[in-house]
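Question: does this match?
>
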Amino acid sequence: MSRKNLTVAGLVTAAFTVVLLTFVLRPAEEPRLKQTAQATVPNPSQEKTVKKTNLVQDVSATDRLNRTDVSRHLRTMLAETHGAPPQDISAYAQRLQQGHGHITMLMWIDYRTHKTSTFKSSLPEGTDQENKQLRKYLNSAKAAIKGHQSYESPSFIIGDKKYYFMAQRDQEGNIAVIALINQRILDRVADHQLKNLRLIPYPKEGNYRVESVHTDTLKDITVKTGHDNENASHFYENEIVVRFKNGHPTAGQLQTIAADIRCKEPRKLGYAYIFRSDKMTYSRLKTYFTKKWSPEYTEPHYMYLTNDAKDENTGAKVITPNDLLFSTYQWNLPAIETEQGWNLSKGSKEVIVAVVDTGVQASHPDLQGQLLTGYNAITNGSTPDDDVGHGTHVAGIIGALTNNEEGVAGISWYNKILPVKALDNSGAGTTYSVAEGIIWAADNGAKVINLSLGNYADSQFLHDAIKYAYDRDVVIVSASGNDNTERPGYPAAYEEVLAVAATNSTGERASFSNYGEYIDVAAPGESIASTYPDNQYAALSGTSMASPHVAALAGLVRSLNPALTNKEVMDLMTANAVDLGVAGHDKYYGWGQVDIYKTLRAAGGNNVPLQLFPQHVGRQLKSLQQSLENSH
């Protein structure tokens, strides 16, 4: 048979295989998670009322986050300066106040020496009535800690600023600290929400011809949603987990193993190693390691392994991080099965997620080591600092340091974040700055780009930038907008972009979320706790907050299976979403709310997952056909 006939025969066989696999691998109908009621669209009057309520809830939740964080700092100060000389206590207080400008005053009381030291001692001055109230709360704080009780005052006004007192005493009762806290973050959040929820005209008339649509709203209910855990017995056919009896193999032994089973450098987790073979199935790998290396144990790779005992056939473990605000405030991560998903992937520093936004606060303690050197498309040559708060909040959802006993947990533990400032200090940007930011991110290693921004103009220039990044195998994720409208927003509505709507803590459509046939998936978007400038934390809402959940998931998928194309990653996320609303795709939820565990389980190892194999073969056929046509 001639080479041409062989090629044609191969094409026919492959085409038949695609048809067969498409039929055989079509997923069986599963019970769908239904809402108690179909998504409804509030009228303008209702929408305004709901948005005002959400704004108040956002500010209230931020107040609680702020107080929880301050309490931790005071307890830490008492513990770390216990028995320290006065100069060390003074130096500690100075560092604390420099890094946390909202701590207006610190009063240190030593009950053993009856000495009081005050750092930044001048109290704010207001009216006689305001000053009287301030003194009343300060005296209440002193009385409480004298009686070995902690203290927290209500908020009070001095001039045009809001404050509160907090006091803590150490366990031995020897020392205490009183702090006066400036709550300007509440004004920032309120102003942020007024604009982003469109409760006031924004941007101001005359500044932009097209309105920017990245926004926020809130609901403070902690409810876990999602479906039951999948069975943990599923494993990757060409991978194995091995713990060696003598600790860790030498570099020479690892080279021998790599040559024998044809694998790249294994991943090391605690005392165990995960080997991924290019040629062996799990059963063959087990035989190989058992006979040649006599390991302490081998097992399938059905989860990421730590130094814990094996836990087979019990469902995926829930990894609960120790971050201060996680259990109380971060309802959004359990809702999309993040904790189970961490058994499969916590990310990789090799997979970069770009945040094209208002910039990111690089010095935030919960983002240390997570950020790469970024780019400022607003002021060329400047660093991409955040002068709004939006980008810092988005970045924290994706990759705030996890399991560090501070603040919030990010969805990705290890993916690096590339901050790109494309929006100015009003929170708005031009088509040019956004397009420039997208192109720069694509040229500088981003494998995922998050765009928590948009407008309603179908800009060809912006679309060209989107295509540029997409053609370079970047997964692009965008917020749909917060105007409660069916009008398509861009870049979310472009074909190359994964458009994200917002849900609340009960899995229902967020009242502000834009909708339409272009919506691909939904993600949590109400009362999302995350990092905020000045080393603080805030609870914000909006599709701007929903989008980074999906971008972070894309980063985890690409870390787990680098062989997948951007289209395959997007297909996996939509195919494994938890269906909400009417069965199948709908204009409110797209294909449903993303599910991190289910998606990562489907992503598998370094090979093309079975459910994507028909599309993969189809692309190979198309590429082969084009090659044949070009050869004539």
About this structure: The longest strand covers residues 161-169. Residues 1-37, 202-235, 302-315 have pLDDT under 50 and may be disordered.
